Structures are given as structure tokens and as C-alpha cells.
Amino acid sequence: MSVASQDTAIRTGRITRTLIYVVLILFALFYMLPLYVMLVNSVKPLSEITGGGMMNLPEEFTLEPWFKAWSSAQIGVEPTGLAPYFWNSIKMVVPAVAVSTVLGALNGYVLTKWRFKYDTILFGLMLFACFIPFQIVLIPMARMLGLMGLAGTTWGLALVHVVYGIGFTTLYFRNYYAVFPTELIRAAQIDGAGFFQIFWRILLPSSGPIAVVSIIWQFTNIWNDFLFGASFAGADSQPMTVALNNLVQASHGVKEYNVHFAGAILAATPTLLVYIVAGRYFVRGLMAGSVKG
Amino acid sequence: MGFLDIDNTTKSYGAVEVLHNVDISVQEGEFLVLVGPSGCGKSTLLNMIAGLEEITSGEIRIKDSVMNGVHPSKRNIAMVFQSYALYPNMTVGQNITFGLEMHGTPKPEREKAMREVAKLLQIEQLLDRKPGQLSGGQRQRVAMGRALVRNPDVFLFDEPLSNLDAKLRVDMRTEIKKLHQKLGTTIVYVTHDQIEAMTLSTRIAVMNGGYVQQLGTPQEIYDSPANIFVATFMGSPAMNVLPAHVRLQKDAPHAEFSLHDGSLALLPFSQKNLAAWEGKEILLGIRPETLTDVDGADRKSSNIAEMTNRIVVTEPAGSDTFVSMQLGGKDVIARMRSDAEVRAGQDFTFAVNMEKAVAFDPETEARIAP
Ligand SMILES: Nc1ncnc2c1ncn2[C@@H]1O[C@H](COP(=O)(O)OP(=O)(O)OP(=O)(O)O)[C@@H](O)[C@H]1O
Ligand SMILES: [Mg+2]
């Protein structure tokens, strides 16, 4: 009796599982379709695309569209390709991610381990920053950047992203440090470590997992941002996303779809790389051993 | 003037006072244990000595200098935490020397101090490991090493053994005691385990509800508990407490209480001052080991009284046999030698060592004799 019912349980289990897998694989394929289209068409000559058959594999394989997108496509006035804009993005993203992550960590540290009056209210206000829509801050921010003499610069753009990202990074680090054993901080205090020594020597080395989360989040958001880039960047500080848009929008005459596809993939590559590289360091249990458990 | 003075100290969180006028003076080389049930304020008091919690009022002095407001690292104390609080990202060696490094000790000296401590605690082979790669007992040793290496005036321990399993706890207890005897350092040690308190301490402060109930040597606490709380908290199984009346017989005070069938037993007190309580009700405290079979009674006692009562349950526990019965309407436990011949339902003659009996005022619960 019990054996039979267990048997059916296993069988229904197997059927549902197969069903789930089939559905999931279908969804995955559907989701991957755009990537397939982009990849395939970025290595075809334009004639193959305009001749129809977007879904076909290339008859003639060429990397020409990639080179063109990177270094010679007409963007703005000069035929520079996306390369200079790629470096603009890097120059904006790296300091913005680094600064917002470090500041978030510092905030989280203070908000959990150096509690002060009204700290929860302050944290609530910082959280509020996560929910402010971009559009609302555009004009005030433009004015602020102007006053600070940072209008139209990469530094100005980085500053905007730092300010906008702090709410998120603070949230991440605060929640992470909230469960960080306070006894470790106290032990360090007795050992004579000061505010920043505790932060650098004790807290940060144990913050690997959450730092990775914060970096991935900030990197993708800032790299993919279009609105701030389009609003605050000058002609020579435009980030990749804005340049890609210009490439696609502004080319007169023939639309070089293969070049557009290649450019789009180039623009998406860094975030993909960050996921692939940093995602592996998403290790949990770095805290193991400090506290019995 | 002690080595460590806790002078009329209180602690409040907002409007709630959690420690009330604590007054303890610890001499150099003493091993003071703070013991009490959960939430009684032991850790709070320890953290105030460490400087991790502010002192609301009163004064704490170490070597005659006032510590109020002094940073924890400037008090020359070291602390061992319940969770050990080892820095997870540092090796054992780095954990041990971190405090010295922060205090600016040059590297060669740090290394030397680390080697010495590691040798003392037998953790030399662990120095390059991370805390995550250690067993509970090893972490415990490292935590002690970190405290020892600073050569502090006062050691503070907050329930350092409570995360270990029973066997290891007993071993480490002995080790801590040996260490104290060897180094002669001043220690304040928090625990809620009364056996730990008895075995380790030179003096015990029994705490409850934010008050120090009694401060004394283990012997004083055990034999002359200040009140019912201390009497029942210290000792395992707990002291039996039963209502009794004081009667005078030939001018000598006796304790009168009911046996299992309602008949009355009359046992002579050793303390003559109880005559003042004639006719009044008291609470009589009898430790289980002073209630035995006649052969097992303490030969050195000058006051062994006998009574016959019915055994309700017997519980052999290897070295002893525990016997429970009804006295004064309460369940009372006697502790017998394991070879005493007892069985449930039997009417048995017990010997009571009345020299060790304790009497309490039923109103205030304070001890009135001895
Ligand atoms: N930050 C705080 N705010 C308010 N009350 C507190 C705070 N910290 C501790 N208390 C209260 O102070 C009292 C004493 O706490 P403490 O941690 O000293 O107890 P304990 O004797 O160490 O108990 P345990 O054996 O459980 O560790 C408790 O009633 C606790 O609720
Ligand atoms: Mg405690």
C-alpha cells in the first residue's frame, strides 16, 4: 500500500519535473533568441541581411562590422567608431562604482556599529533615495553640476551616479553588517583599533560577498544608464550607451544593421563580463569560524 | 581600596535601570565570578568594566584610577567573549598579535610574545590557520591567547565555555583554573553555570534582577546563603526549602514540620538564636547531601537528627542515589550513597545534619540562621 503510493509519487514527480524542464528550456530559448539574432547578423555582410533571412546562419562570415563599429563608424561628427565612448564609459563607471561602494560600506558600518540618535530615520531617508525617479532630479542636478563647474564632464557624470547609487549600496552594506557580530567590533575596540582601522582591517576583509553584489549592481546600472548620460554628458564625454544610440539613429543613407548589432553587443559586453567574472566570487560563508556555528 | 573597585555603580537604558547600586571590590590576583540567571545584568556589568558600556552613575576604578569615560583600549584589560570573536580574515597568529600591533609594539616583540603565549596554550601548530579551520576548543584557546598576550591588569571573561560540549567544558574549566594559579592574574568571569562559579572562583557575586544578592567565598555562599534565591540558585540539586515552625523544647529551638502522613517531626536546631522565633513560621533550608541514610551521615557533625518518612521515588545516578519524599507539603530530595538500600514506597529512617540547616524569614526571604 505505502509502497504503491510512494511509487506513484515518484512517477508524478518525474512527469512534473520533465514538464517543468521542457517549459523552462522553451523559455530560455525564447529569451536567447535576440542574442542569437544579434550575433548571427553581426558577422554577415549587409547584403545578406537586407536580402531577408534574419534568422539564417551567415553564408559568408566576416568580422568587418565589428571593426567598423569599434573604430570607424560615423558617430557624431568624426568617424571614430565606438572606441572613444567606450573609454568614456570606463572612466565614468570605475570611479563611480568604487566610490559609491566604499561610501555605502562606510555608511553601513556607521549605521549598524556606531549607532547614534535618529540613525534609523537617516537610513530611512537614504532608502527613500532609491525610489526617486530619475526624471525628477534632471533639472536640479544639471544646475548643481553647472554650479560646481562639472557640467558636461565625465567627473560630473560619475558624481551623479555616485549620489544616485549611495542609497542602494548603503542598503546592501547596512543589511550585511547588521548581522556582522558586534562582539568582533568590541574585541577590536579593546585591542585598540580605531574607527577606520576597524573598518579596513576587520569589516572590509569580511565584506567580499556583499561588495561583489554592490559592484555588480552599480556597474550594470551605471554602464547601462542612458538618461543621465544623454542629459549631462558633453560631446566628448558621452558614454557608450549614448554613442550607440547616435550610431543607430544618426547614420544617414543605408542602415548598417550588421554594424549596429556588433555595436550593441560591444556595449553589452562589459556587464556580461562582470557577471561572468565576479559572479564566481559570490561565495558565501566568508564569515565561517569567527563565531561558533 | 581594591585592585578593581566597582563603586556604587548603576546602569540604565533609558528609564529602565538594569543594574542597581553595585558595590564590589576585587583584590589583586582574585578570581571573581559573576553568576546569575539570564538577564540579571552580568554581561552589562562586565562590559562596563571593559568600557564597552557607559556607566550611568557611580565609579569604576582599576589600580585606583577612575575608568569612567576611559576608552576600552586604555584600561589595560583584556576580554574573552562568549562567541570568541576571532577576526575571521586573520590567521591565529595575527589574531593574537592584533592588539599589540594596534598598541604600537614593534614586530620582533610581538612575535616573541605570540610564541610564548602559543607555547603556554599549546596552540603553536595552529598559528597559521584561520579561525574557520579550528575546532571549538581550539578557538577558545586562541581567544584566551589573544587576551593573555597583552599582559593586562584585569581579565574579563563573558561565558567563555558555554559554547563547548560538556566534556570539553570541564577540561577547559580546569585549564583556566590552572592558568589562573600559574599566572596569578586578576579575573572577572561571567557565567550562569553555578558549578563553574563554585569551582573556579575565589569569590562569587550572585546576581539577580540587577542586584548583587550576595558577595562571598564559594564556601560562604554555599553554607550561608544570604537569601532563598542564593540558596536555591547555588547547588545541584537545589537546596530543599520547606515551611516549618520553631518550637522550644528544654529551652532549645526545634524545627517542626509535617511528614508524608501529616504527623509532625521535631528536629533540634544548632543555632540558639532561633529561640527568638518561637511559635513563628520560618523556611527551613536543607541541602540534599545533608539528608541521608543513617550510615551515610556526616560523622563530624555534632547534630544529627533522625526521622522516618516514606520514600516516593528513587533515582540511582551512578555515584549517588537521589531519593524524593514529601516534607512540609513540599517535594524534598535526599542524596544517598549509591549502595544505600532504598526503594519506593518504603518507610525509611533518614539522618538530617541539622548543623548545616539554614533558616529563612518567610517574609523577606533573608537568612536568619546561621
Ligand atoms: N541595549 C539595551 N537596551 C535595553 N535593555 C538592555 C540592553 N542591553 C541589555 N539590556 C537589558 O539589561 C538586562 C541585563 O542584560 P545582560 O545582557 O547584562 O544579561 P546577562 O546577565 O548577561 O544575561 P545572559 O546570561 O542571558 O547573557 C536585561 O534585562 C536586558 O534586557
Ligand atoms: Mg550575558
Automatic annotation (TrEMBL), chain A:
User: What InterPro entries would the database entry show?
Assistant: MetI-like
- Phylogenetic placement of the source organism: Bacteria, Pseudomonadati, Pseudomonadota, Alphaproteobacteria, Rhodobacterales
Tell me which Gene Ontology terms the entry assigns under biological process: transmembrane transport
Q: What is this protein called?
A: Carbohydrate ABC transporter permease
Name the PANTHER family for this protein: ABC TRANSPORTER PERMEASE PROTEIN, GLUCOSE IMPORT SYSTEM PERMEASE PROTEIN GLCU
From what superkingdom does this record's organism come? Bacteria
**Similarity comment: family membership:** Belongs to the binding-protein-dependent transport system permease family.
Which keywords fit this entry according to its UniProt record?
Answer: Membrane, Transmembrane, Transmembrane helix, Transport
Q: Where in the cell is it found?
A: Cell membrane; Membrane
Q: Which GO terms describe its cellular component?
A: plasma membrane
> Which Pfam families does UniProt cross-reference here?
BPD_transp_1
Please give the organism: Roseobacter insulae
Q: How does it sit in the membrane?
A: Multi-pass membrane protein
Annotated ABC transmembrane type-1 domain ranges read: 86-278
Q: Where are the transmembrane segments?
A: 19-39, 92-110, 122-142, 154-177, 198-219, 261-283
TrEMBL record, chain B:
Cited CDD domains = ABC_MalK_N
Q: Taxonomically, which superkingdom?
A: Bacteria
GO cellular component labels: ATP-binding cassette (ABC) transporter complex, substrate-binding subunit-containing
Which key words tag this protein in UniProt?
ATP-binding, Nucleotide-binding, Transport
- InterPro entries the UniProt entry points to: AAA+_ATPase (IPR003593), ABC_transporter-like_ATP-bd (IPR003439), ABC_transporter-like_CS (IPR017871), ABC_transpr_MalK-like (IPR015855), ABC_transpr_MalK/UgpC-like (IPR047641), OB_MalK-like (IPR040582)
| GO MF assignments | ABC-type transporter activity; ATP binding; ATP hydrolysis activity
Provide the ABC transporter domain boundaries: 4-234
Q: Name one GO biological process term.
A: carbohydrate transport
Q: Which stretches are transmembrane?
A: none
Q: Which family does it belong to?
A: Belongs to the ABC transporter superfamily.
Q: This protein is called what?
A: Sn-glycerol-3-phosphate ABC transporter ATP-binding protein UgpC
